[in-house]
Design goal:
- By secondary structure, the protein is an alpha+beta fold.
- Helix content is about 25%, strand content about 35%.
- Strands 1, 2, 3, 4, 5 and 6 form a six-stranded mixed β-sheet that branches.
- The longest helix has 13 residues.
- The protein is globular.
Length: about 100
């Protein structure tokens, strides 16, 4: 579900996005993916923008450090957090697990 690359200093988080929810929140795990309900529709990238903003705020990072690495048009996505050291990666992993 969460993988850290120490060479690139990136953390990849496998996400199952559920758009059009009443609020944006983490709702557990599903088939190895972190299930995230998003208060945005999957129209014109609104759900992806909401997902990036949610992780940036949750992890106290700038939005520029968070991106959709793969699955932009899919419910199953990989969110990549860049520029973090191993200690921060361990902190994030423990918070999301």
């Amino acid at each position: 579900m969460i993988e850290y690359d120490s060479e690139k200093k990136t953390l990849d988080i496998k996400v199952l996005a559920v758009p059009r929810a009443s609020k944006t929140e983490i709702k557990g795990e599903h088939d190895g993916f972190l299930r995230i309900r998003l208060a945005a529709p999957p129209v014109k990238g609104a759900a992806n923008d909401e997902l990036v903003a949610f992780f940036a705020k949750l992890l106290n990072l700038p939005k520029s450090a968070v991106e959709i690495a793969s699955g932009g048009a899919s419910r199953r996505k990989t969110v990549r957090v860049s520029g973090i050291d191993e200690a921060k990666a361990l902190e994030i992993t423990s918070r999301l697990s």
